[in-house]
Amino acid sequence: MYHDRGDRQTFILRRNKIMTFDIAALNIVDFAALIILVVSGVLATLRGLTREIMGLAGWPIAILAARLSEPYLSPLLEDAIQIKGLSDALAWGLPFIAAVVLWFVFSSVVSPGLSKAGLGSLDRWLGFLFGAIRGFVIVLVIYAGSVVVAEGENNLSDIITDAQITPTLRGSAHLFAGVLPGDMREMLIKNLPPPSSEVETIQDTVEEAGDIVEDTGVTSSSGNDADGGASSLDLRGDEGGSD
Questions:
Q1: End-to-end distance of the chain based on CA atoms, in angstroms?
Q2: Cα 178 vs. chain centroid, distance in angstroms?
Q3: 175-225 per-position pLDDT tens digit
Q4: Are 73 and 91 a contacting pair, CB within 8 Å?
Q5: Could you give the CA distance from residue 212 to residue 23 in angstroms, rounded to a whole number?
Q6: What's phi and psi for 49, nearest 5 deg?
Q7: Which residues contact 148 (CB under 8 A, 6 or more apart)?
């Protein structure tokens, strides 16, 4: 396979370089991110995937409850507190906190039975995976927020830009920007360095997939409309014939 001893040694050195994880290259930012991932994963393991998913579902429910309750609570709190900003914050915050607490109690009671009836022991392993992903999202949000506040990654501390995880966060932030509202997306992308070729390829693939799905939906809708029109004409023809 190898032409000489030198080729074999070169192959071994390259293989060892790929398989070796250089811990010495990590800095405090890398270790902090790793701690967040591990802690989030361990907490999710203790709770299980079912309970974590139910807990995650509680946040949009709490936000919805707060938005629905705020118009009714705000006038009452304004009369009692007489401080416009504080009354508005409490009108939104109080129902939000109440909904979070109630949902936490509900999920604590219901989720153990659901996990036993569904995933069983696999619930905890999937919980760790969910927790690790959640931890990475937390780190990503911190990075994206720091880039926007600093008005550019180049304005961040060297300890952040030199971290081994920063290129991964940078590419993920470009992908994450795609799900943000227009103004927030433009603000984030404006302060990020240009994406790598790999990230651009992923973005193009996602956009193409979205276009295909959209075109498929439009085609299906047009087909249904055409079928509906044809059926209507057939029905009218039948009615005319019966007359």
A1: 87
A2: 11
A3: 888 777 677 788 888 888 877 767 667 766 766 666 676 667 555 555 555
A4: yes
A5: 43
A6: -65, -40
A7: 187, 188, 191
